[in-house]
Amino acid sequence: MPSPRKNHLLRSLPALALAALTAIAGPACVSKPTMQLDHAEITGIRIGFPPSLGVLMTVVVNVHNPNSYDVAVRAVRGQVVLAGRYPLPVDFRADGDGVWLPSDRTTQVRVPISIPVDLGLQLVRESFASPVIPYRFSGRADVTATRTFRLEADDYSVDDHGVFSRQQIELALGILR
What we know:
By secondary structure, the protein is of the alpha+beta class. It has helices at residues 4-25, 117-126, 166-173; strands spanning 34-48, 52-65, 71-82, 86-93, 99-101, 105-116, 132-145, 151-165. The N and C termini lie far apart (95 Å).
């Protein structure tokens, strides 16, 4: 018959294991990074495969990591709506382990989007009387917490508005005024 002391130890073993796991994994819980749209850049023409031609738009998002450890953005999904009526999908997958964000800092994450050339020309025509073209970026980011534990959390969101100049898209398309 086991001694009362041994019996007590066996009964408390699961609680001790849970306490140890909480002590190790507790600090690795991801606090929600804040994401805010900074600006968009139109930088030129993008040739893709299968054969496609588009204007390269890069949406720059400021991501603040409030954690005491690094986190990585693995992917950003969502959409950009140009001029209030032209939706384009966003499906950015970061290379390797993702874009690592240092602890307690704000880092810019650059999300590339391809605007079809015909849509770019349409936007230039429609915005003839305005120097800017409005857009709305809404999306979600998938985040990995810590390089050691690789805890994954999804659906950190951003939903913000911005503008880019009509001249940027005209230059990318080679339209001279």
